[in-house]
Amino acid sequence: MLRLLGLLITVLSAIAVAVVTWPQFFKLEQTFPFAQIVSVRGVVALALVAVALLALLLSLAKPLRGFAASIAIIAVLGAGANAAILGLRGLGSDGLPAETDTSLRVMTWNTAGEATPGDTIAQTAVSMDADIVALPETSEAVGERVAVAMRDLGKPMWVLHVNFHADVVDGPQAWETTVLVSPDLGEYSVIESSEDGSSNTGTLPSAVVMPVNGTGPIIVAVHAVAPRPADMTSWVSDLKWISDQCSSDQTILLGDFNATTDHMAEYGYKGGTMGRCTDAAIATGNGAIGTWPTDVPALAGAPIDHVMTASGWHATGSVVLTGLDGSGSDHRPLVVQLEPAK
Question: How far apart are CA 283 and CA 303, in angstroms?
């Protein structure tokens, strides 16, 4: 009887490890709690290592040796698989390549509203020579202060903005998304359906920003709702909307997706990850670096902030800025250098 129980626990353990390692295979990547667990692969790998060590200790007891050894093998395989996935996505690079005459630098940073000083945002964007800056959870007033500070530092920017509840005075800045665009790219404007919410993410605002003369990248600054148990349906709807935006070769998606690429298995089209767009951090060796939260080591965090590009652009470098973890936001900035596709 005990042997059968041990066999059952072993089989269930193997299934559980397989599901948390690759929920996409089981169509569970957008299902609670697997969506949340797979977001932090580094933590999953460490937890499985701990299970393996515990099982090895239990194997010292002769009656438990076979059962404990089986559990240890399953845990080691699971930890190895998660570590391999992290390694393939990229464990980090320190900087960006030298800029060229055609390069474009973009930055996304969920600033958590007023938690991050405007001067810090401006100095970071200027030091990285960002041409496009997506700032979810940043009000228009803060965006204007950032733009003024950037202008004073020699980098003027246009300020574009979406607010889902403009009639509410001093509402949460999570209801707002601000985008800064260099005048060197020409004049840009937010499309009407973004401003009025008729085509947008459902709970928190995204901003589709288009070049007025039709020449230049199409910028989609996104902010999907977090996958809390009560918001799972809205989260899935937001991801679908975001993927639908990447239908043009010139599209650049950037912002707080509140999702890792594990959650995007069903949204890729013609080799893309979200619609036609592919993840720039993965392409340049930073795809495993957690951008949230800042109070845990980067490899233990969730890479939920992304820059994704369609075929008109390719990424030549990226960096997750871990040196700003004490700046106030619970997200890390992600900066990517892009070049026009040949």
Answer: 14
CA angle, 184 then 189 then 191, to 5°: 145
- Cα-based distances in Å from 44 to 22, 51, 82, 95, 119: 12, 11, 7, 28, 37
CA angle 155, 138, 293 (to 5 degrees): 105
For 104-340, give the CATH class: alpha beta
Write out the E strands in the chain.
Answer: 104-108, 132-136, 158-163, 176-181, 188-190, 207-211, 218-223, 251-256, 278-279, 305-309, 313-320, 334-340
Percent of the chain scoring above 90 in pLDDT:
85
Q: Give me the sheet containing 176-181, strands edge to edge.
A: 158-163, 176-181, 132-136, 104-108, 334-340, 313-320
Question: 87: buried, middle or exposed (CB in 10 Å: 19+, 13-18, 0-12)?
Answer: exposed
State pTM to two decimals: 0.94
**What six digits make up the tokens of 78?**
């699971």
Q: What pLDDT shows up at residue 1?
A: 62
> What does the pLDDT read at residue 215?
87
Token pair recorded at residue 310: 């369609």
- Chain-centroid distance, C-alpha 287: 9
Length in residues, the chain: 342
Rounded Cα distance, 192 and 199, in Å: 9
- Confidence check: pLDDT of 302 > 90: yes
**pLDDT tens digits along 163-183:** 987 777 777 888 999 999 999
Helix (H) or strand (E) segment spanning residue 217: none
- Confidence check: pLDDT of 45 > 80: yes
